[in-house]
Amino acid sequence: MPKKYKALGSIYYVWIALFIIAPIILLFYQSFLDIHGNFTFDNYRNYFTSSNYMLMTANSFLSAFLITAATLIIAYPFAYFLNTSKHKNFWLLLVILPTWINLLLKAYAFMGLLNRNGSIARLFGLASEGILFTNAAFILVAAYIELPFMILPIFRSLESIPNNFIIASTDLGANKWQTFRRVILPLSMNGVMAGVQAVFIPSLSLFLITRIIGGNKVITLGTAVEQHYLITQNWGMGSIIGIVLICLMFIVMALLNIKNRGAK
């Protein structure tokens, strides 16, 4: 590799060291300090022996799973339609456009749609109470916001499938369903796995949508980190939850990569 490219690559490594590795090390160090700055193992002991934190962990996993499942169910058929559409650039633009809007603005817009006077509440016959500050509202809004990050990798994987494979499958006597099940679906699994990672991992640590849409009724590890850092000022406890979230994300990525390699 030419020296000039090595020099440019060094900037990337410096960026990783300063903004990824260093914060993780600082978070790990902070997790051993109590609220007064004294070294302690109590944060780890309190987390792993507390039924509340275990419940929050399970609730975070369940919420992330439901958000990922909802986006996948919607995204795959839409990505398939997008790939076969004559106006795919137009539909692709409509998928990307919502990502240009600030997350906070979208969350507040949904507050108006989901409250008792909102159109969504009236549509489902819930105008008397609304569905704001419920788990269903949180899953709905989070799935809407994460949807483009599931559609795009699936669409790219479908688009990369050579048309010759589809023609060969048809020539060998396969119908449309058999072609989809035996050719299209297996070859698009890379995009599915990428989409699952892109949605599931951020969904584990959501807190802004949880606060605005779920209120205080939806409690996850992300909201616990926010509370410890901004309200109780117990940075050590917030750090251990952050460390747990990072470990969970690495575990999920490793499992998905193993499954993806097994599928190949």
Automatic annotation (TrEMBL):
<keyword id="KW-0812">Transmembrane</keyword>
<keyword id="KW-0472">Membrane</keyword>
<dbReference type="GO" id="GO:0005886">
    <property type="term" value="C:plasma membrane"/>
</dbReference>
<protein>
    <recommendedName>
        <fullName>ABC transmembrane type-1 domain-containing protein</fullName>
    </recommendedName>
</protein>
<dbReference type="InterPro" id="IPR000515">
    <property type="entry name" value="MetI-like"/>
</dbReference>
<comment type="similarity">
    <text>Belongs to the binding-protein-dependent transport system permease family. CysTW subfamily.</text>
</comment>
<feature type="transmembrane region" description="Helical">
    <location>
        <begin position="90"/>
        <end position="111"/>
    </location>
</feature>
<dbReference type="InterPro" id="IPR035906">
    <property type="entry name" value="MetI-like_sf"/>
</dbReference>
<dbReference type="GO" id="GO:0055085">
    <property type="term" value="P:transmembrane transport"/>
</dbReference>
<keyword id="KW-0813">Transport</keyword>
<feature type="domain" description="ABC transmembrane type-1">
    <location>
        <begin position="57"/>
        <end position="256"/>
    </location>
</feature>
<feature type="transmembrane region" description="Helical">
    <location>
        <begin position="53"/>
        <end position="78"/>
    </location>
</feature>
<keyword id="KW-1003">Cell membrane</keyword>
<feature type="transmembrane region" description="Helical">
    <location>
        <begin position="12"/>
        <end position="33"/>
    </location>
</feature>
<feature type="transmembrane region" description="Helical">
    <location>
        <begin position="191"/>
        <end position="214"/>
    </location>
</feature>
<feature type="transmembrane region" description="Helical">
    <location>
        <begin position="131"/>
        <end position="155"/>
    </location>
</feature>
<feature type="transmembrane region" description="Helical">
    <location>
        <begin position="234"/>
        <end position="258"/>
    </location>
</feature>
<keyword id="KW-1133">Transmembrane helix</keyword>
<dbReference type="Pfam" id="PF00528">
    <property type="entry name" value="BPD_transp_1"/>
</dbReference>
